[in-house]
Amino acid sequence: MVACGDGAAGFEEVDDVESIRVPSRPGKAEIDPLLGEHDHLVVSGTDADLAAVVLRLLRKDAISGVSVGFVPSSPDSVVGALWGLPKTPLQALALALRGEVDPVPLIRDDVGGVLVGRGQLRLVRGVAYADEQVALRGPAASIEVTPDPGGPGLAVRVVKGTVFKRPTTLYSRAFQIGCIPTRPVRDDVVFERAVNKWTWYRHTEDLRLVRGAI
Predict the structure, then answer these.
(1) pLDDT > 90? residue 17
(2) Number of neighbours of residue 209 by Cβ within 10 angstroms
(3) What is the DSSP letter of 193?
(4) Pick from 2, 31, 37, 54: CA 20 to 30 A from residue 169's CA?
(5) How far apart (Å, rounded) are the C-alpha atoms in residues 136 and 127?
(6) Which residues are within 8 A (CB) of 198 and not within 5 positions of it... i.e. 6 or more apart?
(7) Integer CA distances (angstroms), 62 to 48, 77, 116, in order
């Protein structure tokens, strides 16, 4: 088990679980040495921690060969809610270790990152498309993008910010926006600089997430 930050708390007493502690949002030095030895990883931590591990799988061209279990360290995990993972840590661990692989859409962006839970654009103004559909023309309080298993890959939720307009949800394979400078948020991590354009799109391979019944 790859335990990110404090993600392994409480698991030391579980038999037959090899726990490797790494920093929060681990990088190349911590994850790459594990990839040649294991075809199944269990990540315990935040959604951002999971995204960091998945990014290394992508960079090492290992998405199709490594399955991933996830034990959310917070009950507010978007990944956990999206894919129906148990809220109790020990139940989540049991599923992550011995559950069945159920591939889910893996979302990438145009600056080399990945999105496993929720992406956000806050207080944004611009023109956005979900595939060929116009998602936004003008201002919005927020735009949220999440993986979606039932359609082409992405669910795009546009909140205009007025009580008279309900949020609009579109489904697409890609989302792109040109806008006044804004800082996107990926899995609760704010991007390091403001950008005036952004793209999220479904990767050609799915993430081999463990979420099936044991």
Answers:
(1) no
(2) 26
(3) S
(4) 54
(5) 5
(6) 109, 110, 121, 176, 177, 179, 182, 184
(7) 19, 24, 16
Given a contact cutoff of 8 angstroms between Cβ atoms, the answer to whether 210 and 67 are in contact is: yes
Give the tokens for residue 47. 């959604």
Residue type, 140: A
Question: What is the spatial distance between Cα 158 and Cα 170, in angstroms, rounded to a whole number?
Answer: 8
175 with 133: CB under 8 angstroms?
no
Q: In this structure, what are the phi and psi dihedrals at residue 147, rounded to the nearest 5 degrees? A: -65, 150
DSSP 158-177: EE-S-TTS--EEEEESEEEE
- Token output for 171: 């489904």
Over residues 18-32, the mean pLDDT reads 88
Q: Which helix (H) or strand (E) holds 3?
A: strand 2-4
Residue of 86, 81, 106 lying closest to 96 (CA atoms):
86
Which pair of structure tokens corresponds to residue 104? Answer: 């889910």
CA distance 71 to 43: 6
Query: What DSSP line would sit under 92-135, residue for residue?
Result: HHHHHHH--B--B--EEETTS-EESS-EEEEEEEEEEEETTEEE
pLDDT per residue as tens digits for the range 69-122: 999 999 999 999 999 999 999 999 999 999 999 999 999 999 999 999 999 999
